[in-house]
Write the structure tokens for this entry.
Amino acid sequence: MMKILIVDDDPNGLYMLEVMLKGSGYEVASATNGAEALKKLNAEDFDVIISDILMPVMDGFQLCRKVKGNKNLNHILFIFYTATYTDEKDEELALKMGADKFIRKPVEPDEFIKIVQGVIRDVEKGKIKPGKAASGPEKEVLKLYNERLVKKLEKKMLAIEREITERKLAEEGLQFERNKVVNILESMADGVYIVNQQYDIEYANPVLKKEFGAVEEGKCYEYLHDRKEVCPWCKNQEVFAGKTVRWEWHSTKNQKTYDLIDTPLINPDGSISKLEIFRDITDRKQAREALQKSELKLKQAIQGNSFPTFIIDNNHIITHWNKACESLTGFSASEVVGTKKQWLVFYAEERPVMADVIVDEATEKEIAGYYEGKYNKSILTEGAYEGEDFFPDLGEKGKWLFFTAAPLKDQEEKIIGAIETFRDITEQKKLEAQLAQSQKMEAIGMLAGGIAHDFNNLLTVIIGNAQLALMDVIKDESLRKEIEEIKKAGNKAAALTRQLLAFSRKQIVRPEILDINELLTDIEKMLGRLIGEDIELLTIPEPELWQVEIDSGQIEQVIMNLAVNARDAMPQGGKLTIETANVELDDTYFRIRCVESAPGHYVVLTVSDTGSGMDKETREHIFEPFFTTKEVDKGTGLGLSTVYGIAKQNNGFIWVYSEPGQGTTFKVYLPEVKKDADMEKKEQFPMDDLGGSETVFIVEDDDVLRKFVQEVLQSYGYRLLVAENGEDALRVCKEHDGQIDLMITDVVMPKMGGREAAERLQPLYPRMKVIYMSGYTDDAIVHHGVLEPGLNFLEKPFTPEGLARKVRETLESEN
């Protein structure tokens, strides 16, 4: 085995050469300079020398010259391997000194071995002989050597200077980096400290000092824990062993919880300290605990919910499935939680349920594609939907379900899941089918009643005008008989309509003769509790109220239903007035109101509120069964239709007067019943005494009523002016030169009301008296600021005689 001596003052260089050569099968020895190499050469036999050039004590050039100048050593192959002397002059000098090969660093290991092996092979084959020192003057070689040495020393000095400069810059950079690290640690929002292996605190940043106080010389367990010995939970030894540890710690010193990161810090001397970062997570931990409690409450709430409910996350995975869901579907929570099987529970083929659609933030078009219009946007929350559908795979015969699905969002309003609830409406659907049939029959009854109502309107005109004609016909008997026949035919037709009306009135009642005032007194306290404290209840009974014949339970129901309707119209509170009065109605009233004619004495029950009022369209439908303006589940729509039916069944009727923002007045008319049939009628003035020749100004926006009042007062001899509303009244007065003795005006009219018009005309006609006529009672409209109690007031509806009497009384009064 060939033996090689390697010479290099760089331990790394020696190590690399030794590894390469031994790996190639050579025996290797080493020396760190030329002098050490000569000693080994004189003590041992070597075949090859591989040497660096620049070395202390004796460099490579000197070693080569001594080896090649010694007859006992000059047979040894000498190879230079250098990174310092790399110029051609350096190679020239090396060869003159007897070197056999000059190799410049760096060279790949395989290439280096190949070069060495090639030199050895050429010598063995005799192609070359080991080099010898060149013959010639010693001075010339030394001169050349000195020149190369000086040049290399100059380069080395420059390199050293550069190295010193670079090192200084590096140290300055290192100091800058250290300062930067310190600045970072000082400005961190987290607490930081460094402790050595003796548990001494070497550094603490301001945050840590703020949390635990000023740092004094001492141990970390003294400063942080107020202990005199190492904490049993201490992680220092794990960190000193090179391990990074993250853990949570609650301080009994300041009652805060911290997230700690302990990491090893290698010091310049190789020792290890611990750098620990403190992050206050007290609020986060409390929030996490609160969230856990909230999640527990949510879970309990869902489980305790009687409606089938489940929740999915934003990956459509079921996270909650309550007992009600298990009962509805037959699938247990253990079967579906953690899966995406919600579709399998409800459908035969895979398709999204509403919760899936919400998580996917599907468009309206996409949702409609799945549910074919069987859904609506829910009013519960934004982004929620509700609907109903038949699920044939649920139960033995399938089930109808009403479902509601809503998004679950995080604090940034990002959808993180969805919740869906179900309600089994199978029985409800069956009831709806039955109700539909019932409503169909009710509709037939309504149709019959409607036909009778419309027919009676016509009959009212026919019979009423026939009666008026009979009053005027005196001498012509043939004409009188013909009119009598018209009246008889009308009466027969009226009898037919009553038969039709009987179809829609089937309630069995027990009528009794009673005083509505007494009943109202009995239920007044109950009414107060029913309407609530924020609504003022005012009752105005007629002192000498006539009696009626009606089931007491029915009249209580009428009052209660009207009171509830008024309460719901006044959610912010208001005033409810219930008044009773005696009225006398003739054919003219019914003809104007287009209702079935039934002249006579009536007891009127008036219920007025200061609520929101109604428009014309609503007024036209309020007595229809199931018609309601209330929210879903807030009313059946049967309250007013029940009142209407009771009034009709007891030969009475109901009238409503309402305008948006002006409140509502209901008047229920029930026929008077006399205990004594021979009771004397109230004495009245004869018709001839009610006439006059004064100038009366009629202001009314209803054309039919205005013409009726005009016709009646003209028949009593009064001079008349007419206007359609308050503004029109001002215009008419400007064109009128004479005195106005009396103004009869409606209260609520478009453009300008009657009160304002009267106040503006009063200065022009200081002797003018005013009668206000309205569907509201005089006490019920005080809240409008329209009328005050005691002013002249004519309540609608009124008879021609009642109108004439009120006009005459007002003109002759002293007020």
